[in-house]
Amino acid sequence: MSEGDSIGESVHGKPSMVYRFFTRLGQLYQSWLDKSTPYTAVRWIVTLGLSFIYMIRVYLLQGWYIVTYALGIYHLNLFIAFLSPKVDPSLMEDSDDGPSLPTKQNEEFRPFIRRLPEFKFWHSATKGILVAMACTFFEAFNVPVFWPILVMYFIMLFCITMKRQIKHMIKYRYIPFTHGKRKYKGKEDVGKTFAS
Fold it and tell me: According to its record, what are the GO cellular component terms (predicted)?
């Protein structure tokens, strides 16, 4: 193997210009993602805006329905992963390995841990919209289909999948949405002080 055969290195052992450019680009992208982490509402508003722009583009172009259908299936898959627990209780019934969701009133409270965290859900959904948007610029992805069948099939798939997920939630008694830790009230302070 010669001196410059390793990935990203030039002949003189220093990283090549292209490698440094893409490394820096990746660092900037990761920095932007890290800075956007606490702004959940803003991130989702931007994603909804991108989704709206994508829908307008598909409507005006009157095509790319198969790409839109694939995007819908992808988002449905992400949503189901977002609603599902990290450790499936149906698989954990027989074994005592790892944490599980409480099934009785007197069991210890365990927080709901998602299979797909919110940030990764947002990131994947946004990337999916951007990829679908990019596909609308290429005629090769404009496959002629009868779109009402795709809409009906997606609605049917959504209903069946959500029914199965809701039954799973009811059977194993978990709610994927929490609003923080419970707050317990102590005894009210009556304002009396002890006299010595």
Answer: cell surface; endoplasmic reticulum; endoplasmic reticulum-Golgi intermediate compartment; Golgi membrane; plasma membrane
